[in-house]
Amino acid sequence: MKAIFALIFLVLVIACKSKMPIANESTTPTDTLQTYTVTTENVMEASLYLPDKYMNFNEVTIDKDSILSSHLQIEMIEKELFEKMQGTAVNFWEEDAKGAVKIDTILTVKARDTILTFIDDTTDNETHRTFSYEGRLPVINHFVVLGTYYEDYGYMLFDMDTGYNTSTYQTFPLISPDKKYIVSLYADIYSPQAGELSIEMIGDDRAIPLLSASFTNWMPQELFFGTDGYLYVSINHPSQYWRSDGEVNEVHQYLRIKIL
After folding, report:
1. Which of 131, 149, 224, 247 has the most crowded CB, counting CB atoms within 10 A?
2. Using CA atoms, how far apart are residues 79 and 84, in angstroms rounded to an integer?
3. End-to-end Cα separation, the chain, in angstroms
4. Quick check: 174 and 181 in contact, CB under 8 A?
5. Beta strand spans in the chain (E)
6. Do 181 and 202 touch, CB atoms closer than 8 A?
7. Gyration radius from the chain CA atoms
C-alpha cells in the first residue's frame, strides 16, 4: 500500500513540475520583444534615385549618403512623441463621392471636361481588375481612384478638370502641411524588402519629381504629417516586419522625416 501511495505522489510531483516555468525562460511572447535594429547609424542607408532632365530616375552611386542628407533629415524618436503628434495629423483628403457612381462593375467619375469610365473584370486570372473611388485631394485639384489588379494595385490621381491621369502611387499619397510636396512611402514586402519613398514638388500645373529612395533597414507602417511639417512614421526592420504567425508586427520603432 505504501508503495502505491509513493507512486501516486511521484506522479503528482512530475505533473506539477511540468506546469512550472523553467528558470530563466521568458514568458513574454516573442513577437512583443523589441530589438532595436534600426539605429541613428543605419536609418539613412538607402539606394537613392534622382531624376534626370528627361524625368527618368537613375541610381546615384557617388556620395549618395551626403546627397540624400542634403534632401532629408531623418531622426529616431520615441513612441511618446509619435503618439503626441498623432493628434496634430494634417490631412487634405476629402471623402466626397460627388460625381462618382459605381453600378455593378462600372465606375464613372465626372471631371469638368469629361467623364471617366472604369470597368471591373472579376475573372480569376491575369486580366483581373477592380476599381474604387477613394475621394478627392482638392488642394491639388485631383481625385483618386484605386485600381486593384491580379498581382498589383495603384492609387491613380486624375486632374479634376481635364480627367488626365497625372500619376500613380503604391500607397495613398500624403501632402505636406505647406502644400509644397507629395509624398509616397510604403513597405515593399518583396525581396529585397525595403521602405520605398518618393517625393515630388507641387508645381503650378504638375508634380515635379524630386527623389526616390529605397531604405535598406526599415519598412513603414503608419505615417502622417504633423503640423510641425515633419513626416512621422512607425517602422520595423525587415527582419521584424512580420510576426511568427504571419501577421504584421504591432511592436514598432519610430522616426520622423523632414524635407530640406
Report:
1. 131
2. 9
3. 85
4. no
5. 46-51, 57-59, 72-77, 100-103, 106-110, 115-119, 129-137, 142-149, 153-159, 165-169, 174-175, 181-188, 194-202, 207-215, 219-225, 231-236, 253-259
6. yes
7. 25
Burial 150-177 (b: 16+ CB within 10 A, else e): eeeeebbbbbbeebeeebebbbebbbbb
Residue with cell 500624403: 174
What is the predicted pLDDT for the residue at 180?
Answer: 96
For the chain, what is the mean pLDDT? 86
Length of the chain equals: 260
Neighbours of 129 (CB within 10 A): 18
Q: How far apart are CA 100 and CA 131, in angstroms?
A: 12
**18 alpha carbon, distance to own chain's centre:** 44
Are 160 and 136 in contact by the 8 Å Cβ rule? The answer is yes
- pTM for the full predicted model: 0.83
Which residue reads 460625381 in cell numbers?
Answer: 99
| Cβ atoms of 221 and 214 closer than 8 Å | no
Distance (Å, whole) CA 257 – CA 58: 23
